Amino acid sequence: MSERIAAERDGAVPSGGRPVLEAEGIVVEYGRRPALRAVDGVGFTVAAGEVVALVGESGCGKSSLARAIVGIEKRKAGTVRLKGDDVPTLGLRRRSSAMTGMQMVFQDPNSSLNPRRRIGDQIGDGVRAALARGDRGSDPADWLRRVGLDPAMVSRFPHEFSGGQKQRIAIARALAARPGMLVADEPISALDASTQTSVAALMRSLSVEAGAGMLFISHDLSVVRRIADRVLVMYQGRVVESGVTETVWQNPLHPYTRALLAAIPLPDGAGRLPLAPAEADRLAWLDEVPAALERTTA
Amino acid sequence: MGGIDLALSRGGIHGLAGESGSGKTMTALAVLGLLPGGMTASGSIRLADTEGPGAGSDSGFTELVGAPRGVLQGVRGRRVAMVFQDPSTSLHPQLPVGRQLTDHMRHHLGLGKPEARAKAEALLDRVRVPDARGALSKYPHQFSGGQRQRIAIAVALACDPTVLLADEPTTALDVTVQAGVLQLLRELADGGDLSILLVTHDLGVMSAVADEVTVMRQGLVVESAPRQQLFTAPRDEYTRSLLAALPGSSFEQAGEDAR
C-alpha cells in the first residue's frame, strides 16, 4: 500500500489552481509584559487536493498556528482566507455556515468526540453542516465504511471503540461536512504506534479523493515523508524551510532541518546511533536561510 | 500469547518489535509479575543472582514465575526496573524529583537520607540532567519531555538493577530529543552490568541501539536474530514485510534500484 501512496504523492504536483487556503503574516502571542511570541509571521498556501505538512519540535508553535488558522486562537496580526473569504476569529458565537468549509481533526479523539452521543448522530453533525452550506448530503453509515469501520456500528457510543477507531470516527465527522480544507493537529500521535501509519494514509487518500486541501501537523517525520506533498519546517515560531517534501528530504538547506533529519534513526541494521544535536548548535537554528524557503522540485 | 523464549545477555540491549496487540508489553509485564487481572504466566522466567550464595554460578537463579509476593517485591524496582512510554504519567506530579528518586533507595537499600540524596544527585548527573543538585527539589512539570524521560530512567536505575525493561521509552519524544535518550540507553548498556529489554514498534530505533532483535506477532515469536542479520537477511516473511514498509530500510533501497 505504501508504494501506491508514494506514487500517488509524487504524481500530484501542486496543481496550478487557486489555493483553498491562504495565510499571510500570522502572529500569535500569549500573555503580556513580556509577551511570548509563539508564531512569528508565518504565511503559506494550500491548494485543493494538496497535503501540506507542518513539522517541528514540541513548543515550536505548530499547534498555535493551526488554531490561529481555523480561528480558535486569536491572531495578533495576519490574515487567513478560505476560498477568498476572510476567516474570522471565533468568539462565543456559532461559526458561520461558510466557515464549516474548514474542519479540524484534533489530537485526542477521547475529548473531541462527545461520549454521550451515538457516533452516527455525531457524524450526522458533519452531514448537516454540509447541507446548511448547500452542499450534498451523505449517509453516516457510508462514512463509517469509507474510514474502514462496519457501517452497522452507527448506533454505538464512542467508548465501544479503540483509540484508532475513534480517530477514524472523528475523521469521518470532519469529512462528512465536505470541507474544502482540513486542519489536522497531531491526529495520529495519541494513537497506538502501529496504527499511526494506516490512519495517516487513510487521511491522505480521503482528503485527496474529496479534493480538499489538508494541513497535517505531526512530529513524526517518517509519516510526513510518506503522505505530504509539501512540508513546512518550523522552529521557534518561524518557518525555516519549506517546499516539496522529497526535495527537502534529499537536500535540506537549513541547519535545523538538517539536525532534524539527521536525528531520525534509519532501519538499516547498521547500529548507528542518530546524531543528537548539541546545545551550541541551537544558535545556528535561528539563522535565516532564504534559499531554504519555497523549494521546488529541481 | 504462548511460548516466548528470550535471553538477555549482560550489558546488551535486546529489542522486542511487533505491531500493537502482538504481546510485546505483556512479555515485559510478565517478567515483573504485573500481568493484568485474569492473565497468568506459565513457563519459566529466571533472573541471575548477583549477590548472596550461588552468585555467578549456574544454579544462582531466582525463578520469577509463580514466585511468592515477598520475592517479587524484592525484585521489582530493585533488580528489575521499568521505564514507560509517557514520563508525564510515570512520574508523580506532586512530589519533587528528589523524593521520587530517594524513596525506593531508602526502602530497598536501607540508605540514610543524606546518602540517598547524594546518590540521587550522582544519578541525575549520569543521565545528564543539567544542574542535578537544583533538579532534586523541582517538580516533574518544570522539566521538558526529554528531561522527564531522563529522570524516569534515573528513577529506574536508582537501586542498581541488573535488568531494565524499557517500554517504548522514546515514542513520546521529538526526534532530536529521542536521539539523546537512545545514546543514553546505549551508554548505560555499554557500562557493563545492565541488560536492557527495549520494547518498541519503531524499527529505526531498534536498528540504532539493539544488539539482538526479536519480532513478535499475535503473541508468538516469529523471528529472533542478531541485529545485523535481522535487518539485512530476515528469514521470516512477516519480518520482511515489516521492513519493506519502512522508508530508508535496506529493502526499500533495493526495491528502488531494481525499478
Task: Please write out the topology.
The complex is a heterodimer of chains A (298) and B (259).
Chain A: H1 2-11, E1 19-30, E2 36-47, E3 51-55, H2 62-70, E4 77-82, E5 85-86, E6 102-105, H3 109-112, H4 119-132, H5 140-146, H6 163-176, E7 181-185, H7 196-209, E8 213-217, H8 221-227, E9 230-235, E10 238-244, H9 245-250, H10 255-262
Chain B: E1 13-17, H1 24-31, E2 46-48, E3 61-63, H2 69-75, E4 80-83, H3 87-90, H4 97-109, H5 113-126, H6 132-135, H7 145-157, E5 163-167, H8 175-190, E6 195-199, H9 203-209, E7 212-217, E8 220-226, H10 227-232, H11 237-244, H12 250-258
Helix pairs in contact in B: 4-5, 4-7, 5-7, 7-8
Features:
heterodimer; A: 298 residues; alpha/beta; Rossmann fold; 6-stranded mixed β-sheet; 4-stranded antiparallel β-sheet; 10 helices; 10 strands; 31% helix; 21% strand; B: 259 residues; two-stranded antiparallel ribbon; 15% strand; disordered C terminus
Helix content of chain A: 25-40%
Quote the average pLDDT of chain A.
86
H and E string of chain B: EHEEHEHHHHHEHEHEEHHH
Number of domains of chain B: 1
Instruction: State the low-pLDDT regions of chain A, or none.
Output: 10-15
End-to-end separation of chain B in angstroms reads 40 Å
Helix count of chain A, per DSSP?
Answer: 10
Write down the Rg of chain A.
19 Å
Tally the helices of chain B: what do you get?
12
Mean pLDDT of chain B: 82
Order of strands, main sheet of chain B, comes to 4-5-6-1-7-8
Task: Walk me through the structure.
The complex is a heterodimer of chains A (298) and B (259). Chain A is built from ten helices and ten strands. With 298 residues, chain A is α/β, with parallel strands linked by helices. Chain A has a six-stranded mixed sheet with strand order 6-7-8-3-9-10, with helices on both faces. Chain A has a four-stranded antiparallel sheet with strand order 2-1-4-5, covered by helices on one side. In chain A, α7 links the parallel β7 and β8 (213-217). In chain A, α5 (140-146) crosses α6 (163-176). The longest helix of chain A is centred in the middle third of the chain and has 14 residues, at 119-132. Mean pLDDT of chain A is 86; it is low at 10-15. Chain B is an alpha/beta fold and 259 residues long. Chain B has a single domain (13-258), classed as Rossmann fold (3-Layer(aba) Sandwich). Helix content of chain B is 42%, strand content 15%. Chain B has helices at 24-31, 69-75, 87-90, 97-109, 113-126, 132-135, 145-157, 175-190, 203-209, 227-232, 237-244, 250-258; strands spanning 13-17, 46-48, 61-63, 80-83, 163-167, 195-199, 212-217, 220-226. The N and C termini of chain B lie far apart (40 Å).
